[in-house]
Amino acid sequence: MFGTRVQQLARRMVEQVMRPLANLGITPNMLTLTGLLLTVLTASVIAFNHLRIGGLLVLGAGIFDMFDGAMARVSQKSSKFGAFFDSTLDRYSEGILLLGVIIYAQIHLPQQTTVVGTITTAQLVVWLTYVAALSSLMVSYTRARAEGLGLECKVGLLARPERVILLAVGLLIGQVALVWTMLVLAILTTYTAIQRIIHIWMITRPPKVQPATPGEQQANIATGAATQGGAADPKPLKGLAKRMKRQQPIES
Question: Under a CB-based contact definition with an 8 Å cutoff, are residues 110 and 149 in contact?
């Protein structure tokens, strides 16, 4: 959803912040682990009924998630393991945040208020949060699997930065908007995962073969007949000529 220019501008700003820290011996993997601990703290704050503080922390954790990559670029310590480690902990972080929402819904949302039929508000939030968590995982997995096959898959409406901002805004509004926030998050993450599946299908499907026109069919037949006539093996004809010569009567 965010343009390339916005992302590049944000990266340059974070890199300027990381340059002084790079001289202190801080490694990108240290920042990745610190980001995970910050996410655990944020999920705990949400679970214990402090939604607005949790929303601010979600935004802070989202910004902090850019630090390890910027540190790797500034300190020139990029590695394949570092990229793998960061991506793996990102999946844990997103799941932990949504787990905090589920715990909050089970403890603090009214269990008697029904939304549809006998479905309570708490149940609906739990179910929608689970769908959002599953679809968020699939959004990341489809890109990782495609890149493992040598394909690019960055399309989609709701990548991780957009998901973080949407969740943070919903938490900042408070309990009244939580159901709608999780509903929108569940729908858009599912839509994004489907977008990526369709994108990979479109770029990997075999091209359609256009049917030949009547003129092309006649030309192909003529070409095939000429090829067959010109490609005849002369050896059988020579053998047949020799046999016919031997069978002719001897002249007296």
Answer: no
